[in-house]
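Trying the structure run again after the queue cleared.
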Amino acid sequence: MIAAAAAAVVVQSFRYERTLSPAGSGPALVVADPAMLAHARPDFSDVRIVDAQGDQVPWRTPLRAQRRDVTVDLVDAGRRGTLAVARFANRGIVDSVVLAVPDHRFHGTVTVYGSDDRRTWTRLSTTEIFAVGGAHPARSTTALVPRADYRWFELRASGVTRIDGAHVLARALPEPLQSLPASMAGSVLDLHYRVPVAQLDLSAATRRYSRPFRVLTGDGIVVATGVLERDGAPHTTVVPLDATARRLRIVVVNGDNPPLRGLRAEAFTRMRTLVVEGGHAGPLRLYYGAKVAAPQYDFARLPFHQATRTAALGAEQPNPQFHVVDTRSFFAKHRSLVTVALALAAALLVAAGGLALRKT
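Done. Tokens:
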């Protein structure tokens, strides 16, 4: 049974709209596509859904398992040649490692290795780390790792003096990955929307190669580094990412070798979903892209264990009713009039003062 209708939605505030067609009368699952990921807020707090009567339809995000965040004890920490190195024992899944380093400004990489016996090590990933100043200071010491549960991990970092500490992160139940539609021209992968990217799969038709590479966003920010390798059999290099971009450029260092033939890239994002309350008369319309506060629904707070069926999401369309609603005060809207009025008032005061002086 549906509670009393929620507050009305002012649809003129939203830039985008689309139809929503649940497959039945029960709760419906909405899987966000690239357009929705690009134009709605990351937490979907600007999403509103309206039924055929114009009533607001409550929704919620699925419950997520808590993220594992564990500080680890480093051993064998020090320097090996030009690299700062450290190892730690691990119990559980790891999908990223955050380093603590004492340096204030640096630019380098951290390569992560895994082992179960501390004799044979597998290189898992190489990630750019940096700390830069300027008008927009930025710092990142997170090494992204394909999900692994090795007993031991080793960190090898360039560009920093030492590794003082680390903590590991992992999602107990990570969101499934979904492929992002994209087109490739040369070394540039166009995702068509500015969307979050969680993984990049790289491969090439050349039969044998081992070449360093970097992945950059369209504005030149390095988001991943590593080595592309193949020795005969087809091989895909999995590159974990944590970036939001419209275009990604893959720069391969070919050295004295001919360029790789048939370089291919496939991008993935974490699947983002909403659960929509059932029992509302269709057709439903979904709106987003507005400066509004997050909604507060009982449906989002009460226990929920019902099965859901995926709803069909129509194509994104500009909302024909959209217009910018000016919520500023009268004084903020009409500053020039206020300035003129103040000037006239000041002139009248001066004139009145002069008249009073003449009378005295």
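The helical segments are 34-39, 298-301, 330-333, 335-359. Worth checking whether this holds up in the mutant runs.
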